[in-house]
Write a structure and sequence with these properties.
The protein is of the alpha/beta class. It folds into two domains: 191 residues, Leucine-rich repeat, LRR (right-handed beta-alpha superhelix) (Alpha-Beta Horseshoe); 36 residues. Helices cover 28% and strands 8% of the residues. It contains three helices and nine strands; from the N terminus they run βββββββαββαα. Strands 1-2-3-4-5-6-8 form a seven-stranded parallel sheet, with helices on one face. The radius of gyration is 40 Å and the shape is rod-shaped. About 14% of the residues have low confidence.
């Protein structure tokens, strides 16, 4: 089928609608308006390239939505509005380049989400923070650029894993020296230059003046020749920044070990000094007593000499 047939003839109590493997390219805004009891909707393996903002607004009971393997390049921020019961969302194998802020704002019950196989290079952490109950996240097969734009989302992923969630491999495509590495294995210290860029560019929410990301890519449009361009500092491109391969954690460990060794050496030196002082004190005391005894021994010898002379004269 090329177009979705009229679904108004279906009973409003219908709970499962599976229409995969067709040739749908678009949907009308009221396509599912009467299916208020729908729990599962499968639109996978079609050619949908655009979805009306409120096409799912009447599906308050929907828990499972699959848009897998279509031709979607963008999603309207209000696309999921009204889906308060949604638990599983699959938008893998499309051409998405971004997840708009607000798309997942009211999806507090979402536990399973797949964004694998798209064209995502970076994600905004704020777009995913409402997902308090998320347990499974698929992000593989995307051309991730592991720079400052992905730093905050990396921290959010680590928090998700820490509380028991699952995230599949997020392999870096750029920069070249990180290609093929899972961003979760990249030490957070390698993103310290992002903080330095934030400070150098005036701080703020985005890290630079005007609130833009510190590593945002500059997009320049052609200007008329008469236009006067004022010189402004160019945004920092994280992919061109020099990474710091030295791990701060290892450096701290080295300092701690060196401190412990120095402490032990100092204790041994103090003990040796104390032993030397005690030994010197004992030797001094012994010498004093020895000197006191020498005069007494001399007097005893002097008293013995007259007696010997008297005995010899009598003889």
């Amino acid at each position: 089928m090329i177009t979705l047939p009229d679904l108004s003839l279906l009973p409003s109590t219908l709970q499962i609608l599976l229409v995969p493997n067709n040739h749908f390219t678009s949907l009308s805004a009221s396509a599912f308006a009467n299916l208020t009891s729908l729990v599962r909707l499968d639109l996978s393996n079609n050619y949908l390239d655009n979805l009306p903002a409120h096409v799912f607004a009447e599906l308050a009971n929907l828990t499972d939505l699959s848009l897998r393997n279509n031709s979607l390049t963008t999603l309207d921020r209000d696309l999921l509005q009204g889906l308060g019961s949604l638990q599983r969302l699959d938008v893998s194998l499309n051409g998405l380049r971004a997840v708009p802020l607000g798309l997942l704002e009211h999806q507090h019950g979402l536990t399973w989400l797949s964004l694998a196989g798209n064209r995502l290079q970076a994600l905004d952490r704020a777009a995913f923070e409402p997902l308090a109950n998320l347990q499974h996240l698929e992000l593989g097969s995307n051309p991730w650029e592991c720079d400052c734009n992905l730093r905050d989302f990396k921290n959010w992923m680590e928090w998700l894993i820490y509380r028991g969630g699952y995230v599949d491999a997020v392999e870096c495509t750029l920069p070249k020296d990180l290609r093929g590495r899972d961003i979760r294995s990249v030490p957070v210290e390698m993103f310290n230059y992002c903080l330095q860029s934030d400070n150098e560019n005036g701080g703020g929410t985005g890290g630079t003046k005007g609130g833009s990301m510190p590593c945002a890519r500059a997009t320049t449009a052609p200007l008329p020749e008469s236009t006067v361009v004022q010189s402004e500092p160019e945004p920092v491109d994280c992919a061109k920044q020099r990474y710091r391969p030295i791990s701060v954690r290892r450096a701290i460990g080295t300092v701690v070990i060196a401190g412990v060794v120095c402490g032990i050496v100092c204790i041994m030196m103090v003990a040796a000094a104390a032993y030397g002082c005690i030994y010197a004190s004992l030797m001094a005391k012994y010498q004093r007593e020895l000197k006191k005894r020498q005069p007494l021994m001399g007097d005893a010898e002097a008293e013995a000499d007259p007696e010997e002379k008297q005995i010899s004269s009598v003889a």
